[in-house]
Amino acid sequence: MAGFHLDDTIAAVSTAMAPAGIGIVRISGNDAFEVADRVFRAKKEGKKLSAVKSHTIHYGWITEGEEVIDEVLVMVMKGPKTYTGENTVEIDCHGGVLAVKKVLEAVLNAGARAADPGEFTKRAFLNGRMDLTQAEAVMDVISAKSAYALKSSESQLRGTVKKAIRAIRKKLIYEIAFIESALDDPEHISLDGYPKRLAQVVAEQKKQVEKLLASADEGKMIQEGIKTVILGKPNAGKSSLLNLLAGEEKAIVTDIAGTTRDVLEENLVLKGISLRILDTAGIRKTADTVEKIGVDRALEHAKDADLILYVVDASVPLDENDAKIMEILKGRKAIVLLNKSDLTAVIEKEEMEQKTGAPVISISAREETGMEELEEQMKKMFFQGEISFNDEVYITNARHKQALLEAKKSLELTAGSIEMGMPEDFFSIDLMNAYEELGSIIGEAVGEDLVNEIFSKFCTGK
Question: Pick from 446, 448, 444: which is nearest to 170 by CA?
Fold first, then answer.
């Protein structure tokens, strides 16, 4: 975005470049109405878009010279009550790729500049229409892969993160200002007993930061999906389970043990929850070099899994390979699936609950039973059955998490300085660092390079 200027009038296609019912070309900037007037011919002769009321729709044609390009509806919106805070025109034309492209070309030839990726939202941020967390939520809404991810992004778009961060910053800046005032005017402002009061404020705000950080792991799973690793011995039915969950044949299934050699990943949505499911090689001792690599990869993925689905063939006894897997499950979120419940079972549900301490569900991948209970258990295990996005704030962005960690560190340093009886100016240095780290989350303390980096990830037209 090296050539970015707020004075430019920009334009881009805001809908997918694919055959559709309609396509939208968006224009934003000081000269948006004048640019539109150069290409728009209203049904009512002489009508100028620059002279009509705001937030109105007008019927006519887009033309270039004598050529009529398309029949359109044009929406006129005057700033600052627009998405970008600027004068905005949206041209609704027919959704054919060529028609949309020609309308955009006409608009660019009439004086607009092609918008950079994310430039409309960047302008909304720079014009104060939204903070940085809301701007980032726009892209999260567009790329949401599940109902929960969509709700979380919409909640952030409404300003839940901004509200929480601003509440903490308000408390901190009050204390910073008080310290600075007292140091400048010690005759009138006393700091007697102040460290004790400040320690309480710092502890309270640190607790608020920790509350936000506590939501980060759950927030990451909401946004990116729960990393779910399927573990089990060869021929336990792991690949059959993946195929059943996916609703199609994703993995090769045979009666030959060790068919799955590599990790197979699939993104699924179950009960509104996004899952990144990894089917892995069967866990067993093997002399086969390729299979051994597959087993090692399975164990490696299990280390950082959010959830392990341990598939057990209930028709055969447990052995040392099962013991190895059960050792991996210790202290981890896991669900044990007693597969092949359609056959005579030699392993009891109660036995597996005792050995693993994890919930156990009887399933049959062949008969397609037990899936509903599995889905409900996953939902209960991660989100206590439901997620409410009305009051809860979820941190879903790695940048936000890092800033919160830095803010927490600065608050801990402040608490340490108070405990050691350090001079008050030491308090304000660390408090200001925490204040600025939190400000970087909502865009009130960020440099141009970071802003450019964030918006460069957006799609063009947004």
Answer: 444
Q: Is 365 annotated as a binding residue?
A: yes
Taking the CA atoms of residue 72, residue 78, residue 82 and residue 85 in that order, the dihedral angle to the nearest 10 degrees is 130
Among 35-39, 86-90, 111-115, 183-187, the least confident range: 183-187
CB atoms closer than 10 angstroms to residue 190:
9
Ligand-binding site membership of 345 (annotated): no
* Average pLDDT value for residue range 70-87: 96
CATH fit for domain 222-383, picks 3.40.50.2300, 3.40.1180.10, 3.60.10.10, 3.40.50.300: 3.40.50.300
The pLDDT value recorded for residue 412 is 96
- Confirm or deny that 240 is annotated as ligand binding: yes
Question: Token match 């030491």: residue?
Answer: 426
Question: Which among 238, 227, 382 has a CA at the least distance from the CA of 310?
Answer: 238
Q: Report CA 289 to chain centroid distance, whole Å.
A: 39
Query: 121: annotated binding-site residue?
Result: no
Q: Domain 136-215+397-443 sits in which CATH superfamily?
A: tRNA modification GTPase MnmE domain 2 (1.20.120.430)
